[in-house]
Amino acid sequence: MQQVTLGLSVHRPEMIPLISDLMQRHEALFLEEPPTADFRQMLEGVVSVDNYLGPLDVEYPEFSRRMCCLLRELLGKGKKIFQVEPFMESLLAIHEFFAEGHGPGELNKDSLQHPVYLAERNATAALLAYYRTVMHESFDKTIEAIKQFARMDAARFRLRDSLRAQELATLIGKYSSSYVEAGVIHFPLWRLLRQQVPSQIRVRPVFLAKTAMKTMKEKGHLYGPGDQLTLLYMFHPTITNTMREQVLAARSIIYSKIIVKEELTAEAGTFPHLRDELACIRATGQLTLDDCRRLFPLARRAKSLDAR
User: Fold this and answer.
1) What is the reported pTM?
2) Torsion of CA 162, 166, 168, 171, to 10 degrees
3) Which of 63, 75, 149, 200 has the smallest number of CB atoms closer than 10 Å to its CB?
4) Do 154 and 282 fall within a single domain?
5) Both 288 and 210 in a single domain?
6) 245-267: per-residue pLDDT in tens?
């Protein structure tokens, strides 16, 4: 039976050893990123890692640098490595189209780029609306704004996962074992992949943070309240006006103020990001809606250290 592992992880440097351990066990590796220029040359050592990453707008530079070094090593061991992220590939093509002087109205409504553009536009607009609201409006209006963003974000993720599952399904059957890289928010990709591939291909999700938490002698999950709300809308897009939505939205406002934003590097096995995320999840998990209402005016303009 062919094996497919969906490796669900946060993109932090501390996770590289765990990702490496899983990738070593598979014939083909499918990365959560669109095809980029010079990728093969970087893997083969023709282009340096720094020169390859320089033009790219990477969110986590140290994680990306270490991943490139790992992928070079894995290529040397005969692994097949692919970049597969059709939503982001289409989005980059849209940006290039607009940079050439074209407008949204010129996108072909029958093309893949049209729904990608709409999903990205709606999510970005909702995020900007939330930023404006959280700084100037009431707690209740902020709750509604963050729920609206989570809905739009969930719709974007549903399209993104659907497109990726379709493309992956045409590729993974060619290999005895495949590793599919994904962020933890893409857990629904597991179900989509299972639906797309033949029954003889076994797809299993692996939460890499679970392995890390065993090392840390900790229990729990690493879904912050915002991710929990987004996943709720991903699985239940028609749900509305429940207390669970309200509480998760309220907690997510506080969580976003106290979580460490900058990329941390540390010795292997110390997991600074995971420890911080777990502590913030546990802290906000104790807050009621009224707790968040009282904290909101104190935290919304505070720096992270003061908010903590």
Assistant:
1) 0.94
2) 180
3) 200
4) no
5) no
6) 999 999 999 999 999 888 877 66
* Burial (0-12, 13-18, 19+ Cβ within 10 Å), 143: buried
Same domain, 108 and 188: no
List the structure tokens of 142: 């902020």
Full domain range(s) for residue 14? 2-84+171-216
List beta partners, residue 206: 7
Cα 149 from Cα 19, distance rounded (Å): 31
DSSP string, 41-100: HHHTTSS-HHHHHTTS--S-HHHHHHHHHHHHHHHHTT-EEEE--HHHHHHHHHHHHHHT
Q: Write down the residue that tokens 């912050």 correspond to.
A: 224
Helix, strand, coil shares of the chain, percent, nearest 5, are 60, 10, 30
Distance from C-alpha of 136 to C-alpha of 300, rounded to nearest angstrom: 10
Dihedral sign computed on CA atoms, order 57, 182, 30, 14: positive
Contact of 152 with 144, CB cutoff 8 Å: no
Rounded-to-integer distance, Cα 292 and Cα 254, Å: 7
Residue with tokens 């840390």: 216
Q: Where are the alpha helices (DSSP H) in 173-271?
A: 188-196, 208-216, 225-235, 243-258
**Using one digit for the tens of pLDDT, what is the confidence trace for 54-97?**
999 888 999 999 999 999 999 999 999 999 999 999 999 999 99
Both 63 and 91 in one domain: the answer is no
Query: 49 and 128: one domain?
Result: no
What span, in angstroms and rounded, lies between the C-alpha atoms of 169 and 190? Answer: 12
Task: Answer for the pair 169, 190: CB distance below 8 angstroms, yes or no.
Answer: no
251 with 257: CB under 8 angstroms? no
One domain, residues 54 and 179: yes
Same-domain status, 70 and 180: yes
**Residues 231 and 304 reside in one and the same domain:** yes
State whether residue 162 is helix, strand or coil.
helix
